């Protein structure tokens, strides 16, 4: 199950969302081009967030720099897709500058929870997923019934379903909690607690805006969706032909 788009294009140009995507891509290219694996590891340890260093009282700048680093093409592409899907509507509601502050604050909260989850870890954490998880949390609170197209893959067949945002994002959050509880904190890999921390921070940071708009009354007025016309996309599945079996 993989979100690929929502049905709610922004009513304005999401300058900050586009700028964040551009910065992440440019930083990735600047890091990866012309460097071997050993050099990349050195850079990740220098600019990635290492909980043990933070707890020792230094390298605080890595709380921010780590948010703009990615470990590979798929890591970058997945994060930027999620930011593009969910960021534009939230930026429209919060304003450009407000959204930028929100994004950075969610990223800081994500880094904080990941650090507290394993204070002695010397493994560098990199990626924008904590901040983007905050965007997803804010999107869930403001637009729980927005349609999100999700790609389901069944072996060689695929199909796209339009699913309410509260199901997609709620399930995603549940997976992060389950994986965080079941994965040893020193195992490396995915920073599940950064995802969970960013998501909760996004919900909390968006709460004042939701309350100012009338809370439940806002949901009723907008039907839980961004307050402008939605786009309709046709669901589709693969056109791979079935191969007939030869009769004996």
Largest sheet descriptor: 3 strands, antiparallel
Q: Which H/E pattern describes the elements?
A: EHHHHHHHEEHHH
- Are there runs of 5+ residues with pLDDT below 50, and where? 235-248
Find the count of extended strands (DSSP E, 2+ residues).
3
**Could you tell me the strand content as a percent range?**
5-15%
Please provide a written account of the structure.
This protein is mostly helical and about 250 residues long. The chain is built from ten helices and three strands. The protein has helices spanning about 15-30, 35-45, 50-55, 60-65, 75-95, 95-115, 130-140, 165-180, 190-210, 215-220, and strands at about 1-5, 145-155, 155-165. It has a three-stranded antiparallel beta sheet. Helix 5 (about 75-95) runs parallel beside helix 7 (about 130-140), helix 6 (about 95-115) crosses helix 7 (about 130-140) and helix 8 runs antiparallel to helix 9.
